[in-house]
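Justification of computing resources. Each target in the renewal requires a structure prediction run like the one illustrated here; the chain below, 252 residues long, is used simply to show the kind of job we budget for.
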Amino acid sequence: MSLEKTRHFIASLPLDDDAPRPKFAAKSPVEAVDIDNLPNGLVTGSNLLQFEGDLSPQLRSSVALSLLAAQRVAANDPITQTPDQWVARHNTVLQNLNWSIQGGGHIKSKFDNIDIAVHQAIIPFLATAFTGGVGGGSLIIAALDQMKKIDADKPWITLFNRESRRFEVTEYQFSVVKKEGLNTTLQMACARFDATFGQTQVLFVDVTTQKAEFMAAKSAMAADSSLLAAMNDDLKLKLAAQTKSFIASLPL
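Resulting structure tokens:
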């Protein structure tokens, strides 16, 4: 897709400010994040995101905003009525933002250990999913590992849990982004929990009292770095009202 077509697509994105019927409770703001100077680790809605290596501020911003745009469009599209439809709509937005999906798959995972919290049980899955990366998702894993030591009501945790709930599931996304040649690549891993976990803060649930099973998915995406950087201003303009409520820095 040409830059001109991409800019038109961004301008016409049906975000929740434009949506005819919001699906979720009113959003609350989080601590302000400087979209022009993003850190290596941040929360973008339901996605825990890690940047690896030397990515320019424009690339970091475009990646974070692309993912946020895909989530907001999928969340407010009245056609999406199931978790799989949400994922399909989400990925369609990314493809129209020039991300190509290069592979992926789904597996069912079951917790074999007991007396552990959900965020600890996810870590082995992520360690495997991000094998081969420069940092191997180390910031994401560190953030999850630190949850046992910090307040569960921290704004970034509240945001991550809130935006991960959709329909009858809670689905967390974890992404590692780096630059490879002329492209920016994204490895994404997802963990989907069913409704037996209720509406509590799922990441702090002890699996001994819950259904200890989740659906895991992995996918790989790539986009031309120069095109991503070129569409940054359009994404920032379109998503300006979204950043304070849906993007937060990880306290690492």
